[in-house]
Amino acid sequence: MGQVTYVCFRDGDCDRQGGGLVKKPTGFMKNAFKIAQELEKPCSGDHRHVAVLGGGRARRAQVYPGELCKSIIFGLRNQKVYDGRLGNQLVGAVDAVDDLKDFVLKEEEDANFTYYEDMSHVTGKELPKHSTMKARQAEMKQVYAHRIYDKVPLKQCYDTTGEGPVGTKWLEINRGDEDNCNIRARLVAQEFSKDKLETIFAATPPWEAKKLTKLLMSLAVTEGIGYGPGWHYKLDFIDIERAYFYAPAKRNVFIKLPVEDHKEGMCGKLRKSMYGTRDASLNWEEEYVRFMESVGFIRGLSSPC
Q: Whole-prediction pTM value?
């Protein structure tokens, strides 16, 4: 659904009569009527309007002013409250997790290990030890908060599966640059495919999400499919951080404890799905389908996810 809003830009322009604001018609595509209500508010009328003239002025008017961005954010919040996805006294939708343990990894505790000298799995360059330690510590806090595994004796692993626990490793990436590091770390399992099991196949693995997003956007702006006289569909894209951590584990999977949580003679039995396990995508699919159906959605036929 399209809408034209007149936006007053504080660009410092002036004419023969003095300074003023640039009033420029700006088009928006939207699917949330609460945002539309915010954008429909008229100009306050407490200032003059001047024409956009001179080199570079039109380009400067392409930058949205802070007041406009604030209105869009307020509209988004009001829409979430209206849809029942956000309480009146809340600022965001979150899922409650257990209190974090006071997890601190001291440098002297890893004196016997050289794993912080590992290369980034993307660039192959060495990562700063201190920043990498902080990134791994932040990830371990999430592992504890979501209770990803229970510590059990190694004997239980061998008695249940007939083999040793699945290995684990750290993957790191520097999302900043060499001068301003922003290292993200993720603990992943190393469960390799030994056979083909249709029972752990995910209908829509994560890497297909981009293709589906393009398809849905195309359908949403197609007359007769996404909209028509007096009606239109809405698209809502939600990114869930560490999604697999919310999906209960369905199989008996035992993992080697990371160095940060190592205990002699013990391993971890997964309670939640872990990145790197073969059925993590399927478990997450079943979990979010269960939730969506519980709030009234109907599972599709062409894309069962």
A: 0.55
